[in-house]
């Protein structure tokens, strides 16, 4: 069977919300599938940026398809329950602010294997969306296979100020009043003027 015309998603691929996808570092056999998503942006939460020097095929494929590559640095994480958290809150806020801007959609968010780092970003996004802690951690375990004490603490302690663009994605806070969002227990939001 030839994979040349097959649509093969990246490892741990999933739709997070409409026009927002997650998974592992894309390989060449995933490019055709990713093209079908009509991506505008790929957010890479990896130790190294995707450049012509680090991954020429991926870099040129993204340029050919007019996909903006954004790098959010993360450390290489260890294994097991004692692994550290490979990124900080500033990095998570940066990713969330890009995700909330509808001008950037559709977006593919990935780390090296689609596990811990991507799951941390998605967990913080779910917290922003008022998901319960149990639901957040159940989803986390689905992709990372386990959750360390450091991971749990990172998500539970996530407190931030988040810039919400005027042209925000349609799925955020669907059906919730402004007063509810303004009183989020751990996060503060501010809107900006149109660019």
Q: Please name the fourth-level CATH homologous superfamily.
A: Protein tyrosine phosphatase superfamily
Helix proportion range: 25-40%
Low-confidence stretches: none
Mean pLDDT: 87
The percentage of residues in β strands lies in: 15-25%
Quickly give the CATH architecture. Answer: Alpha-Beta Complex
Class derived from helix and strand content: alpha/beta
- How many distinct beta strands? 7
Name of the top-level CATH class: Alpha Beta
What's the overall geometry? globular
Q: Radius of gyration over alpha carbons? A: 17 Å
Folded structure, characterized:
- This protein is an alpha/beta fold.
- 33% of the residues lie in helices and 15% in strands.
- It has a five-stranded mixed β-sheet with strand order 1-2-5-3-4, sandwiched between helices.
- β6 (160-164), α7 (178-182) and β7 form a beta-alpha-beta unit.
- It is globular, with a radius of gyration of 17 Å.
- The model has no long low-confidence stretch (mean pLDDT 87).
In short:
The chain is α/β, with parallel strands linked by helices and 195 residues long.
Summarize the SSE layout with pairings.
Elements: E1 14-17, E2 20-23, H1 31-36, E3 41-44, H2 56-64, E4 68-71, H3 89-100, E5 107-110, H4 116-128, H5 133-144, H6 149-156, E6 160-164, H7 178-182, E7 187-191
Parallel strand pairs: 2-5, 3-4, 3-5, 6-7
Antiparallel strand pairs: 1-2
GO molecular function: phosphatase activity
Pfam families: Y_phosphatase2 (PF03162)
InterPro entries: Prot-tyrosine_phosphatase-like, Siw14-like
């Amino acid at each position: 069977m030839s994979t040349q015309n097959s649509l093969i998603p990246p490892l741990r691929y999933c739709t997070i919300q409409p026009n927002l996808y997650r998974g592992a570092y894309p390989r060449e056999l995933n490019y055709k599938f990713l093209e079908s998503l009509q991506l505008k942006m790929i957010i890479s939460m990896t130790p190294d940026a995707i450049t012509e020097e680090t991954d020429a095929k991926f870099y040129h494929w993204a340029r050919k398809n007019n996909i903006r590559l954004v790098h959010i640095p993360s450390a290489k994480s260890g294994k097991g329950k004692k692994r550290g958290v490979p990124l900080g809150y500033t990095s998570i806020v940066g990713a969330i602010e890009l995700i909330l801007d509808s001008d950037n959609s559709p977006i593919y968010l990935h780390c090296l294997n689609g596990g811990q780092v991507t799951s941390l970003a998605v967990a913080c996004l779910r917290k922003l969306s008022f998901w319960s802690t149990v639901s957040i951690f159940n989803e986390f375990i689905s992709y990372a296979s386990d959750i360390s004490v450091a991971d749990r603490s990172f998500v539970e302690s996530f407190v931030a100020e988040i810039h919400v663009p005027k042209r925000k994605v349609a799925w955020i806070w669907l059906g919730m009043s402004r007063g509810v969002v303004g009183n989020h227990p751990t996060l503060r939001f501010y809107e900006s003027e149109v660019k």
